[in-house]
Design brief:
α2 runs antiparallel to α3 and α5 runs antiparallel to α6. The chain contains seven helices and no strands.
Length: 178
């Protein structure tokens, strides 16, 4: 896995300077533009194309707060492919109620109840976002042990957000059916 922070010469942070990310992106876009290597060997052209691709991916990830959280969790070994993360029972019970309400709305559409459910999800999502923001703000100033605890907490919130994303998709379907 390529370390995009290292590629851009930046420290690993949840809150990098957007202007600096953009500056690095443009700088490397010029440096690794394939047109400048047209007379080079095929190997060199392939290498430059790979670096150009890495630069594009790095910019996409580092400039998007949600992708950046996912990436940092991955980079720090918190997210593992195929992992079956178990969300807390209290959260799952709350989501079960939401899912039941959504099922009821499929059989008995009600724009008012759907709007109330959407507002409830917005509120839960805002709470999770606020918690993530508080944790990520303090991350860089902590020792390794504290950083690990923060990453574990962020991972839990990340998975809750993923779950909410699926519910939000179901709400969109319910809205389009109404």
């Amino acid at each position: 896995m390529v370390d995009y922070f290292e590629f851009y010469g930046l420290p690993v942070t949840f809150h990098p300077d957007p202007a600096l990310i953009k500056k690095k992106f443009y700088e490397l876009s010029k440096k690794y533009h394939p047109d400048f290597y047209i007379n080079e060997s095929e190997e060199k052209q392939a290498e430059v194309l790979e670096l150009s691709t890495i630069n594009n991916k790095a910019y996409q990830v580092l400039s998007d707060p949600q992708k950046r959280v996912h990436y940092i969790l991955e980079l720090k070994g918190q997210l593992i492919d195929g992992e079956h993360y178990t969300l807390p029972q209290s959260f799952l019970m709350e989501m079960m109620d939401v899912n039941e309400s959504l099922m009821d709305l499929q059989f008995d559409p009600d724009a008012e109840r759907l709007a109330a459910l959407k507002a409830e999800i917005d509120e839960i999502e805002k709470g999770l976002s606020d918690q993530i923001a508080a944790l990520t703000t303090s991350f860089e100033h902590k020792d390794k042990e504290a950083q690990l605890r923060i990453l574990t907490a962020i991972k839990d919130l990340y998975y809750r957000n993923k779950y909410l994303y699926r519910i939000r998709e179901s709400i969109k379907k319910a809205e389009s059916a109404a």
